[in-house]
Each structure stands twice: as C-alpha cells, then as structure tokens.
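Table S2 (continued). Query chain:
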Amino acid sequence: MKRVFIKNARLLSQGVELRPTTISVENGRIVSLGDAEPQAGAEVLDLGGKYLSPGFTDIQLNGGIRKFFSQTPDAETLAEMTEGCLKHATPYYQPTLVTALPETIFEAIEAVREAMKTDPHILGMHLEGPFLNPVRRGAHTLEYIRIPDDELLDKLIEKGKGVISLITVAPEQFTDAQIKKLIASGIQVSVGHSEICYDGAKDAFDKGIRIVTHLYNAMSAFEPRKPGLVGAALDDDRVYGPIILDGAHCHPAQARVAYRAKGERLILITDAAVLGREMDELDFEGFHAKLTPDGFYYNRDGKLAGSAIDMPEAIKNAMSYLNITLAEAVAMATDRPAKAVGRDKQIGQLTVGYPAFFSVFTDEVTDAKSLCFYPEKSI
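Corresponding output:
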C-alpha cells in the first residue's frame, strides 16, 4: 500500500499539541511523525491547519443511527453502529447490551464475535447487566434483572471470552466467591446500577475493580455520613470515572467536582441510545426511550434512557463545563478511555506503530470527521 503523507496538521495526543505538523501512514499504521518532505511516490494530504488526533473512543454506545443493539443484537445493527460512529468521528467503540434475557445475551456475544473478525472499530462488547440492583435499574427492564447464579455466571465467562470486554454489575448482588471469580476471568468489571455502600465499593475496588459505569448515574449517591458509590469512586485514585456530559445526566458543577477528584481518570462516554437524534422513540420488551424537544431521551417513568449526544459534542461540553483545553478534552476521549479499558498499548496515541484511525476537526470540534487508513487485508 502506498504511503500517505499528511501535512499542515495540528497533532493532538495524550493531552498536548505535538510539535510536528506532519504524519506518515502506511498499510494502516503510523510509520513516522515530523518528516520535512513526503517520501517519493507518497500521496499528500493537506489538512490546512485542522487538528488531527487519535480516533475518538466511546466505551459505552447503545445504538447506531436508527438501530438499537439491545433490540436487534445482530450483524446488521453492528454494521450500522460502525457506520454511525465513523459518521460522528468515533472510530473505536464498544457496543453495549443492556439487561436482557440470557438467550439474547448469548446471541449478542456471537454477533459481536463474528463482527470483530472483520471490523477493527469494535473493541469488544460492554454487557450492562443483568446482575444489577433493581433499586438502581434506571431504564433497564425490571423483569430481566437477576441475582447471579453460578451456572449462568460460568456460561457467561466461557461464552464471553474474547468478546465481553466490560461488564457492569452491582457487586452487592454477588457472593464474595462469585465476584472474585468474575474479576479473575479476565473480563473487566465495572460497578454500576448499584446501591452499594462506600465500604462495600472500596472492598470491590480492593478486589481489583477499577472502573464505574456512568459516574453519578444509577448509583448510591454522595450524602452526609453516607458517601455511597459516588463518594467511593471519587475518593479512590485507582478508579476510572466515565461521565456523560450532555447537560442532563449530571450538572456541570458535579462534573467539575469529578474532574478535580479524578483528574486523568475522568473519561468521556456518550451512553447514546442512538447517534444523530434520528430516532424519536424506542419501545420494545419493557424498554422505552422517547426523544424530548430539548434533545434528551426519557422513558415513561421520567428517567433518562441513554443520552442523545455524540463524542464531538461530549468533547465540546467538557471544554465548556470543566474549563479545560481542547487538547485535554480530546485526551478524555482518546488515550484515557484506552487506558481505562486496558487498550492503551494498541490505540489512543499518535505513536509510530499505532493504527492510523484518526479524528480530524477544527476549534469547533462538532465538525469532526473520521479519517481511517486500513491495512491491506482489512475492511
């Protein structure tokens, strides 16, 4: 494959703007940064002073443009999710399956397994449930939530190997042996949709859990003398806090508190129901989400049912809410989530040898586009 020489680019990586303004790509990989001139025969791409960063990464995405993964967990939905992510400048994502029946979970696992063979944009599947606390279920279907049993847990670990990259659970629903088994399985475990107390959450973190699901939402709150899961997550320097900055899931002041507490471990997610606000309503098997005139998804109980933002919107909101630079806001959507899910040795940096999946944008950010160069034997 011919080398591509990208010039006049403002390169953002790991929270800073790099000094080079050129980057060279060959066979889907970064091969050099800072070349003065293109290699003989290279295709030249002039970005005209636009920013170029590693591809934005969303570790919690529920749907594509008009398809919701939990409703139709199949190859067609995954293809549309990839299409939607690329359209919204997010070349890496984890399709998320919300609480479902076991047969639906296993159907989703096999769909993701097949898709990952040819689709390099999918990092693995985020299984959000079914082992949640009903008290903190949010928009999840109550009838599908269940107490962990060893048979189902063992089957999930076996079937999910290499596919389930993240599972959200309420640890208080597990026995000590069960939670240790799940952590030891190699599947990354996140605490969410949980009523766990501060001490219980700290115990879960001591056992090896290093991330929570949508900080502030669907978790025991920070109260006087009862810090809850929110307090435990903010208090523990080992723990990543994914946050939804859409103006509805948390107040900007809460976001600033989280930023001061978590620093580089505060990361952006969208938790988008679908991308682009093209679906007015989702309604199936007890799950309901309706788009309101002000651009948010709520269910019939008045609870938020996923967000409606994309990652460029989240980055722009991070700059506004947190009063941080564009470079740091981009880091919250690139190298930091890559670290949070243990993929920082493969993605999230403008470094020689890393994949050439980029996001390109101006100061406006919301005009961001994907720029992806694939290996010769990839899609």
